[in-house]
Amino acid sequence: MNMDLDIRVRVDRKLSKLYNDLKGKVIEDFHELFFFFACIGFCNKCKQPLGKKEDKFWSKTIKPCEWACYYSMILETHDFDIDSISDTDEVIREIEEYANGGFNIAYKDFLSDFITKANGEYRLSTSLDDAELMFDFINFIYEKVSL
Fold first, then answer.
1. What is the pTM of this model?
2. In whole angstroms, what is the distance from residue 53 CA to residue 41 CA?
3. What's the CA gap between 71 and 88, in Å, rounded?
4. pLDDT value at position 128?
5. ∠ CA 60-63-69 to the nearest 5 degrees?
6. CA distances (Å), origin 63, targets 19, 32, 68, 73, 128
7. Structural domain of residue 105, as residue ranges?
8. CB 53 within 8 A of CB 8
9. Which pLDDT score, from 0 to 100, does residue 4 have?
10. How many domains does one find in the chain?
11. Given a cut of 80, is residue 5 above it in pLDDT?
12. Is the residue at 1 inside a domain?
């Protein structure tokens, strides 16, 4: 485990512009949105391999509490085998799949109302009501936590 490494965290290329669009609207930084999607994916046991990959942010921006969750997710996934968290790059790669799966869940459950898909890329709708997006985003989190 080495949280000081500077690893490029990737997202599926089709989501890259959506990350840009959501930054500052519902989440302040990329690592926070990635964390949100990773948690949704993990809680639903939904990993999905990335298609075309795109570097999105540096691992040094990930907060210690997020790292703790990522390592916990990997340990849980691998029956608490301590060797499963020895390679930080591999931890990130597996979490990328959880984040990709989490996006698909969030898209199906509520984000599809706010997103357009063109040329294989997801973007926020230009007719977006920011207040409604924020309300639905918070409501989605509340529903998932209240289960």
1. 0.90
2. 18
3. 9
4. 73
5. 115
6. 18, 9, 9, 15, 30
7. 8-145
8. no
9. 65
10. 1
11. no
12. no
Q: Structure tokens of 118? A: 């063109």
Give the HSE-up count for residue 128: Cα atoms under 13 Å, Cβ half-sphere.
21
Residue 33, in any domain of the structure: yes
pLDDT of residue 145: 67
Position 135: which residue type? F
Token pair, residue 125, equals: 């709708």
Torsion angle, alpha carbons of 120, 139, 75, 63, to 10: 80
CB 19 within 8 A of CB 33: yes
Closest Cα to residue 49, out of 104, 98, 108, 112? 98
What lies within 8 Å, CB to CB, of 142 at 6+ separation is none
